[in-house]
Amino acid sequence: MMTSHPLIRLLDRGSTLFLVLLAAFAIAIPVSNLLMPEGSALHLSTYFVALFGKYVCYGLLALSIDLIWGYVGILSLGHGAFFALGGYAMGMYLMRQIGTRGVYANPILPDFMVFLNWSELPFFWYGFNSFAYAMLMVLLVPGLLAFVFGWFAFRSRVTGVYLSIITQAMTYALLLGFFRNNFGFGGNNGLTDFKDILGFNVQAEGTRNALLVTSCIALAVCFLICRAIVTSKFGKVLIGIRDAESRTRFLGYRVEAYKLFVFTVSACMAGVAGALYVPQVGIINPGEFAPGNSIEAVIWVAVGGRGTLTGAVLGAFVVNYAKTFFTSGALAPYWLFMLGGLFIGTTLFLPRGIIGTYNNWRAGHADKAEAKAAEGASAGGGASPAQPSAAE
Amino acid sequence: MATVQADRKTTSSLLYLDGISVSFDGFKALNELSFIVEPGEMRAIIGPNGAGKTTMMDVITGKTRPDEGDVFFEEGKYDLSKLDETEIATLGIGRKFQKPTVFEMHTVEDNLQLSLKNDRSVKATLFWQSSAEQEARIDQVLDIVRLKHLRARVAGSLSHGQKQWLEIAMLLAQDPKLLLVDEPVAGMTDVETMQTAELLREINKTKTVVVVEHDMAFVRELGVKVTCLHEGSVLAEGSIDQVSTNDRVVEVYLGR
Ligand SMILES: Nc1ncnc2c1ncn2[C@@H]1O[C@H](COP(=O)(O)OP(=O)(O)O)[C@@H](O)[C@H]1O
Ligand SMILES: [Mg+2]
């Protein structure tokens, strides 16, 4: 309800549980990896730390998608592009940190530039030796692209499937661009062979754990920002736009400004996710722009539960765990079929996703209990509100 | 159209439509439609299905641009054909849709909270806090439409008639100068219909109202000046008795 204290609105039961679990993982995993002796049942391998760190980044990407798809109905099939751009900004910083340790030992130029016989650093690589500048770009580049893209798309009232298609076109165009060697981002090899971040070896156990904890903190902060947005009056306007866009317009709200703001915020979050992802996986290449990646991320959200925030993160974990599990076994060639099947199955049998279905079941229970308590007090009611359909 | 310029300076109208034409793929939904609504007036618009009543509202609220003609608001001060939906709503024109359109996922209270006349900017809604004054205003509006007992209910669970009233309440919360109400009693029982007529008369005490309706008993109950549309233009105008005995109106209504 609008009248309750902002903090209570922000941290409902589900959100609190989510943050507590996230904090528990962020503490338990490094403790178990760094402090427990190898061979002990409580020891987790460094492989697992990196894996979990990767999932957290995917969770953040899913969260950013849910903010716009779940709450405003903008189905972006190009969010992988913002993720990749954030990743490239981080990758550029990491490349500049290599310095003379590269194969060609050039103090300024990354190896791929020396290989291409470039004599000086392209202007857009300037400044990336500074961590602060690179982090600024992690936010600014995806944010700016989203702002410009959204400015045109929302003003011309491109919605629904058409918007989804042009977001796919956007990420595909970037894919083609980044594949080219003369684009200046390492062509199809991308950026890799990173040595250190802020002076710490990216391969070291301590660094890996630190990156995992940082990713968890980033996810928690972004989650709180999303909660603040969706529980404010602004968030109610967003839901209004999702369910009855013209009603919102005729009430005098500038719908395109609302969409533009939240789309840009979402793109910045996707950029942060990409930036944290790159040092943990050790590479960024144009493959990250592949249209399929963006679609996969949307499936995570659908599976976990659109419009729930926590569901998006859960979906990212569940689907990616399944992916890790299946693609490392005999079933590997069939993973894409399984993913497709999962999406179709979710749409048909669990249209609200895991968390959405659970919330609905709980609301149903609460309704029944209430109805029992207030037996005959008032007629009617009880009908649960319509949920957004999975397809836009 | 040099005369229009003079007209709109001298007219005392709140809403002024002159020679409005709108066509969809060659089909003329509005054909040289002209009429004027005075401040404080309540006007009923009748006409058979497809007469262009909803299209007329689309033109006034900026959803549809007229191919030809002038639409002015407030003594010709604002040219509505140059503004978009948001700007027109901000000028003080509220609209109830033919199909009741409320925010189904939100509570009745939140529906009204979103409608209250307030700063609509992104920044204002992000940092918005409720106030006692706003709560009181919501109570007041809910009183008028008799939905106070449903304040905490999710709008999607309301009956059809209650949704119609909620939408009217949302218009009131907006505090507009002109209310456009499209078929408010469609799907209502006779009792609800009469209650709605009473409600609109009450609202008309402080606001200008244009109401589109088929239901003759309802229009009679309103007891206001009637404009009958047919094939996109005005067929007759006057009291309900004058209009309903007009030969051409009878022909149109019987002939359909
Ligand atoms: N967007 C549109 N595209 C094509 N035809 C339309 C459109 N809107 C309305 N029409 C047509 O214009 C005519 C007038 O419609 P409308 O204004 O809805 O009538 P009323 O509200 O009086 O029943 C109808 O014949 C309708 O089919
Ligand atoms: Mg109509």
Q: Classify the secondary structure makeup of chain B into a structural class.
A: alpha/beta
Low-confidence stretches of chain B: none
Whole-angstrom Rg of chain B: 19 Å
Alpha-carbon distance between the two ends of chain B: 36 Å
For the biggest β-sheet of chain B, the strand order reads 6-7-8-3-9-10
Helix tally of chain B? 11
| Global geometry of chain A | globular
Query: Mind describing the biggest β-sheet of chain A?
Result: 2 strands, antiparallel
Secondary structure class of chain A reads: mainly alpha
Cα-atom Rg of chain A, whole angstroms? 22 Å
**Do you know the CATH architecture of chain A?**
Orthogonal Bundle
**Number of H- or I-type helical stretches of chain A:** 15
Spatial shape of chain B = globular
Q: How many DSSP-defined strands of chain A?
A: 4
SSE pattern of chain A: HHHHHHHEEEHHHHEHHHH
Helix content of chain B: 40-55%
Distance between the termini of chain A: 27 Å
Determine the strand fraction of chain B and express it as a percent band: 15-25%
Short description:
With 392 residues, chain A is an all-alpha fold. Chain A has 15 helices and four strands. The radius of gyration of chain A is 22 Å and the shape is globular.
What do these coordinates show?
The complex is a heterodimer of chains A (392) and B (256). Chain A is mostly helical and 392 residues long. Chain A has helices at residues 6-10, 13-34, 46-72, 79-98, 111-115, 131-155, 160-179, 205-231, 233-243, 245-250, 255-281, 291-304, 310-327, 335-349, 353-373, and strands spanning 191-192, 196-197, 200-201, 283-284. Chain A has a single domain (6-381), classed as Orthogonal Bundle (ABC transporter involved in vitamin B12 uptake, BtuC). In chain A, the strands form 2 sheets. Chain A has a two-stranded antiparallel sheet with strand order 1-4. In chain A, strands 2-3 form a two-stranded antiparallel ribbon. In chain A, β2 and β3 form a beta hairpin. In chain A, α2 packs antiparallel against α8, α3 (46-72) packs parallel to α8 and α4 packs antiparallel against α6 (131-155). The two termini of chain A are 27 Å apart. By secondary structure, chain B is α/β, with parallel strands linked by helices. Helices cover 40% and strands 23% of the residues of chain B. Chain B contains 11 helices and 10 strands. Chain B has helices at residues 2-10, 53-60, 85-91, 108-115, 122-126, 132-145, 160-174, 190-204, 216-222, 240-245, 247-255; strands at residues 15-24, 27-37, 42-46, 68-73, 78-79, 93-96, 178-182, 208-212, 225-230, 233-238. A 6-stranded mixed sheet of chain B has the order 6-7-8-3-9-10, sandwiched between helices. Chain B is globular. The chains are: A mainly alpha (392), B alpha/beta (256). Chains A and B meet through α9, α10 and α11 of A and α3, α4 and α5 of B. The complex binds adenosine-5'-diphosphate and magnesium ion. Magnesium ion binds next to α2 of chain B. Adenosine-5'-diphosphate (ADP) is lined by residues 24, 29, 47, 49-55 of chain B.
